[in-house]
């Protein structure tokens, strides 16, 4: 298998490795703060260390990993400021989209949103819930009839995918988010723009608070792990 991979163009191998690592980071299989060692990754993927090193550089440029002279390469651990700044941008954009979308949502689109929420509430699978969650927001914001606004929002949401996953890793939090979505949809059905904006803002602000709690938990675990390693 290694020979087959190495027979590819070097750039292709680098991109293949970075794509696999990117997927594992974004879907949570590689948690924030996880150390990434070149030799281990190369062995796992059956490639040399060169494309792995280059993949690390690509992911670092995307902000998914960070290199530290003492800890080496680790999966990006978001800071409290990172999260606050990201959600501050999202709040402005998504509230504008809700304001524009609410009067324009057709009955067909409202029924589609209702179907998505029904599926979200029925599933216990995080991956499926994440996909449905994204579909809910995309369908709603597309009703704003502003392609540029929708594109920027989607880009910002993709950049926050790790944060979102951190937030909804627990079933109780997914159920809480389901309730927020129901409140947003109810406000949209009544064509109450201010109520829809308030529900959307509460949804984002609740997410921020709980993500910050998760970061505190992860930082505590990382610190404990570093102490254990230092004591060896």
Notes on the protein architecture:
With 232 residues, the chain is mainly α. It has two domains: 2-77, Arc Repressor Mutant, subunit A (Orthogonal Bundle), CATH 1.10.10.10; 80-210, Up-down Bundle (Four Helix Bundle (Hemerythrin (Met), subunit A)), CATH 1.20.120.530. Helix content is 76%, strand content 4%. It has a three-stranded antiparallel beta sheet with strand order 1-3-2. It is elongated.
Question: What's the short version?
Answer:
The chain is mainly alpha-helical.
Question: Looking across the biggest beta sheet, what order are the strands in?
Answer: 1-3-2
User: How many strands?
Assistant: 3
CATH architecture of the largest domain: Up-down Bundle
Q: Spans with pLDDT under 50 lasting ≥5 residues?
A: none
> Please, how many helices?
11
Shape: elongated
CATH fold topology of the largest domain = Four Helix Bundle (Hemerythrin (Met), subunit A)
**Helix/strand/pairing class, anyone?**
mainly alpha
**Rg on CA atoms, Å:** 20 Å
Compute the number of structural domains: 2
| Name of the top-level CATH class of the largest domain | Mainly Alpha
Helix content: over 70%
Spatial separation of the terminal alpha carbons: 36 Å
The residue-averaged pLDDT reads: 88
Q: Main beta sheet: strand number and arrangement?
A: 3 strands, antiparallel
């Amino acid at each position: 298998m290694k020979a087959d991979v190495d027979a590819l163009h070097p750039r292709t191998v680098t991109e293949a490795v970075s794509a696999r690592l990117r997927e594992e980071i974004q879907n949570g299989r590689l948690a924030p703060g996880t150390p990434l060692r070149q030799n281990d990754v190369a062995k796992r993927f059956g490639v040399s260390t060169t494309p792995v090193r280059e993949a690390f550089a690509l992911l670092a440029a995307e902000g998914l990993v960070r290199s530290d002279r003492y800890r080496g390469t680790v999966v990006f651990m978001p800071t409290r400021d990172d999260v606050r700044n990201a959600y501050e941008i999202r709040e402005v954009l998504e509230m504008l989209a809700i304001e524009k979308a609410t009067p324009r949502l057709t009955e067909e689109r409202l029924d589609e949103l209702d179907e998505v929420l029904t599926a979200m509430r029925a599933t216990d699978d995080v991956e499926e819930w994440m996909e449905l969650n994204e579909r809910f927001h995309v369908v709603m914001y597309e009703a704003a009839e502003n392609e540029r606004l929708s594109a920027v929002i989607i880009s910002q949401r993709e950049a926050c995918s790790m944060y979102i996953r951190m937030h909804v890793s627990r079933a109780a939090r997914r159920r809480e988010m389901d309730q927020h979505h129901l409140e947003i949809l109810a406000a949209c059905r009544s064509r109450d723009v201010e109520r829809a904006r308030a529900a959307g803002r509460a949804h984002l602000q609740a997410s921020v608070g709980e993500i910050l709690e998760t970061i505190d938990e992860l930082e505590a675990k990382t610190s404990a792990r570093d102490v254990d390693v230092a004591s060896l």
